[in-house]
Write a structure and sequence with these properties.
Oligomer: single chain
Structural class: mainly alpha
Helix content: over 70%
Number of helices: 3
Strand content: under 5%
Number of strands: 0
Largest sheet: none
Shape: elongated
Distance between the termini: 16 Å
Length: about 60
């Protein structure tokens, strides 16, 4: 199950940082890129924290 979550996050990252999605934010591309990047990193941190807690810290 852990592997499925990481593959899902990778695919979501590819979709979010792909040009058609980034094209929506033409006026503030840099700002939206950093915001999406921060949100994506926060989601990865939260999921990694919960997976580590579930695994017993191993």
């Amino acid at each position: 199950m852990k592997r499925d979550i990481w593959i899902f996050l990778f695919v979501i990252g590819l979709l979010f940082f792909n040009w058609p999605i980034m094209g929506i934010f033409k006026s503030s591309l840099a700002t939206s890129l950093f915001i999406l990047w921060f949100i994506f990193i926060a989601i990865i941190f939260i999921i990694a924290h919960f997976l580590e807690r579930e695994d017993g810290g191993k």
